[in-house]
Amino acid sequence: MPALKVAKITSATPRVRRVELVGLDGGDLPAFAAGAHIDIDLPIGEARSYSLMNDPGETSRYVLGVLREADSAGGSAWVHDQIKVGDVVHASAPINHFPLNEAGDVNILIAGGIGVTPIMAMASRLKALGKDYTLRYCARSAEDAAFLEEIVQAHGERVKTHFDGGDISRGVDLTALLSKRAPAAHVYVCGPLGLIKAVNAAAADWPKGSVHYELFKGSEADLAPENNDQPFEITLRKSGKTLTVPADKSILATLKAEGVRVKTLCVTGRCGTCRVTYLSGKVDHRDDVLDDDEKDTVLQVCVSRAMPGETLVLDL
Length: 316
Known about the structure:
Rossmann fold; globular; 3 domains; Ubiquitin-like (UB roll)
């Protein structure tokens, strides 16, 4: 991974830090498109994905907004407690699983909490293109809405805020907003799983490819209306251990609890990093990256499960 230098760190809210990264030589960085992220190596031997929130037209820096998670496994805690200006970090080139369809004539951007970071880059790009767009920013309060001042300064009356104080009934009325689709309209949402589910439900009649979202946590399977997952067993070929994967846990979580290390990035079935070879058993593949041939031999332990009654034998 290329090396980047931490050029600036500021606090956006008590729980959100803004981190600016530049090249070691001060030159241009690889270009990125709105919705992209970079994967940063952590000292614990894993990597985490962080959305790029600055204007995609900028080439000299990458800007991240990092929320301190209460249950952080090392990523956000490391950003908040350890890195400092002048540090060197190693990161991937920009990756984009949440691209902006620049042909859309009407664009509704919906952000929940720290999900505003990729949405900010999208708003900047749409403004540069002269497109029609609005940005709906949902948060508990104005104090919790990171980067709000600069967003309003950049986009003015296009920004609509929705502060619910923790009561979702006081939030944005998605049914009224999305019940009728304007011609060539697209909606983009990033934030908590509940918000993404609500947007998908409100825009259920929109054509395929017009509703776009990015999951910061969870997987595609989590968007299903109900979860009927059952426990199943996995056998680790190299150690001979047989483990039970609970209904509410992933293979990845089960392996980690046993001290089995698997490299991960997105943990949502969209990056392909945590693929593991399996030797037998029928797999319920729930990822977005494996092709049909790959599914015959590998699975992604962050989201894949066994088909009912099956035991999966993993090459671990």
